[in-house]
Amino acid sequence: MKKRTGLLVRWSVSLACMAYLAWTMADQGRQLLELTPSPSDWGLLLVGALVSGLAVAVNGVAWAVLLRWLRCPLPTGQAVVVFARTNLLKYIPGGIWHLAGRIQLLRRHGHGWGQAAMAVLLDPLLMAVAALLLLPLGGWRQGLGLLGPLAVVCLLPGWQEPLTRHLLRRVKLPRVGGNAAAKLSPGPMLPGSFPGGPLLAEMAFVLVRYLGFALCAHGFLPPGVPPGSLLAAFALAWTAGLVIPGAPAGLGVFELVLVLWLGGVVEEEAALLATALSYRVASTMGDALAALGAWGVSCSGKRWKTSNWIRTGF
Question: CB within 8 A of 93, min separation 6: which ones?
Fold first, then answer.
């Protein structure tokens, strides 16, 4: 019953957001049709998709840095491949199946269920904090710029254990290879230091992800939009899509927050809608390209192991 209620809430939030966006698109229909990208703009959209795919690989590297900080390291290449392959699972209703795939990998490497769960839950938390730290670049905006410095507090050693316990209670992760009755004690699993390295790595991911967005925005937004405002708008919208209960991959939530934030900076609402929709397509293509590349690397590795086994006879 709780699972059905949670799923209903998630989809209700996204449907409400998408209904508002659909109403706005209908209201701005003529202006949207007049926005015809030039051939160079189409090229930028394609590059934006490729950069979005690259961002997934950077996110995988950041996850590998986090795993080393948690003292459950994996080879960086393997972490990136598994991260990219499981990333597409975030589009499945429920929003946890990409995390389940990563837990399964860590369990196969001999780590306990609690340690594996911590490794996959801290990753989106660090992503959100890294993105919120960029908000002051767009001004304080009625105090929203303070969210970044305040978010860092939850990463301080004294706050880590209660926060991680709360996350483990709230996020219903599947018990992949674990005992459902096992009790979690996240305290000993945490190094007890500030995760400076993982946080910087996640910020690099957010900036690369923003670059893909900026390429998509270039073809629709008028010149003169302050770069800091554009970066802050993306950071807030992306974080909202990550943490607000909604449809998979923040569908609807990201677009709505982006349009509302930039509404006071860009007068052409149709240009904002076109930017949000084009980035949604580009980022989804980037996720698919990253997963396809990871699948190709995995297949190449399996073929190499098979041919090596045939040659050596072992």
Answer: 7, 10, 11, 247, 248
pTM, two decimals, is 0.85
Question: Encoding tokens for residue 286?
Answer: 């980037």
CA distance 19 to 25: 10
pLDDT average, residue stretch 245-263: 81
pLDDT value at 12 more than 60? yes
What region does 313 belong to: left with phi over 0, alpha with psi -120 to 50, or beta? Answer: left
The answer to whether residues 61 and 229 touch, using CB atoms and an 8 Å cutoff, is no
The yes-or-no verdict on residue 104 having pLDDT over 60 is yes
For 147, other C-beta atoms within 10 Å of its C-beta total: 19
Token digits for 135? Answer: 């908000």
- Whether residue 309 is predicted with pLDDT greater than 70 in this model: the reply is no
Three-state secondary structure of the chain:
CHHHHHHHHHHHHHHHHHHHHHHHHHHCHHHHHHCCCCHHHHHHHHHHHHHHHHHHHHHHHHHHHHHHHCCCCCCHHHHHHHHHHHHHHHHCCCCCHHHHHHHHHHHHCCCCHHHHHHHHHHHHHHHHHHHHCCHHHHCCCCCHHHHHHHHHHCCCHHHHHHHHHHHHHHCCCCCCCCCCCCCCCCHHHCCCCCCHHHHHHHHHHHHHHHHHHHHHHHCCCCCCCCHHHHHHHHHHHHHHHHHCCCCHHHCCHHHHHHHHHHCCCCCCHHHHHHHHHHHHHHHHHHHHHHHHHHHHHHHHHHHHHHHHHHHHCC
Mean pLDDT score of the chain: 81
How far is it, in rounded angstroms, from Cα 91 to Cα 87?
8
pLDDT tens-digit map of 171-208: 666 555 554 434 444 444 678 789 999 999 999 999 99
Give the tokens for residue 294.
């990871």
Instruction: Decide which of 27 and 238 is more confident.
Output: 238
